[in-house]
Amino acid sequence: MERTEVAGNLADVRSRIEKACARAGRDPAGVKLVGVTKTVSAQSIREGIEAGLEIIGENYIQEAKSKREPLAGFPVAWHCIGHVQTNKVKIAIECFDWIETVDRQSLAVELNRRAGDAGRKIPVLIQVNIGGEATKSGMGEEEIVSFLRLCRDFDHLEVRGLMAIPPFFDQPERVRPYFRRMGELLKTLKAEAPQPEKMRELSMGMSGDFEAAIEEGATIVRVGTAIFGRR
Ligand SMILES: *Cc1c(COP(=O)(O)O)cnc(C)c1O
Predict the structure, then answer these.
(1) Which CATH number characterizes residue 22's domain?
(2) 24 vs 80, 103, 176, 177, 215, CA distance in Å?
(3) Ligand 1 pocket, 81 CB below 6 A?
(4) Residues whose CB falls within 8 Å of the CB of residue 180, separated by 6 or more in sequence, listed in order
(5) pLDDT at residue 46 above 90?
(6) How many structural domains is the chain composed of?
(7) Would you say residue 1 has pLDDT above 50?
(8) 224 CA distance to ligand 1 middle (Å)
(9) Atom 11 of ligand 1 has which residue's CA nearest to it?
């Protein structure tokens, strides 16, 4: 059988993940790969899934909604990795299994309410604005402790860890300090989580820097371009 370009790219990314894990003394089973599919066709996503991709990451709710139908029945989890408007929470819950981008208290309140209506318990990550950038969403480090305490009242959310989009640099070594800081944050915040044993995911690292992210403790890497090509 001829291997598709997506399948070949995916194999390369997997082998780079394994090498980064080996350098860091980590088990590759501890790193989940999210295939980021904004602007990617359902056909290409299908190739990714058939080549073993288990998690799809979409930024826009409408786009995810339109792709879920042609891909219904494929055994993949859908992660929301983009900004969620409060008035879109109901459909966000219909389209996604995980929400990686809980960036404010009001969103968590609404997610908890709608998840309750749907009879679900939704895994979520707290998005951290690790670079303190005015243009990026995410909570500041100082906000997160009080937010986590509040989360104890949310019966329909499961706080699984932290997610970040650090400042952009084209050299991974310049992003590494932000990845490292995320690892430290997770360690110090764990005890404040509603279920500390479940608070263990660090979603960070993209096509240009996922290896450095893994060396600094990423458990979820979000890779688009390196799998599906340039957008
Ligand atoms: C687009 C995107 C990615 C993937 O970026 P690539 O550089 O294409 O791998 C990861 N995370 C988020 C939040 C994104 O928007």
Answers:
(1) 3.20.20.10
(2) 28, 30, 14, 16, 5
(3) yes
(4) 216
(5) yes
(6) 1
(7) no
(8) 6
(9) 222
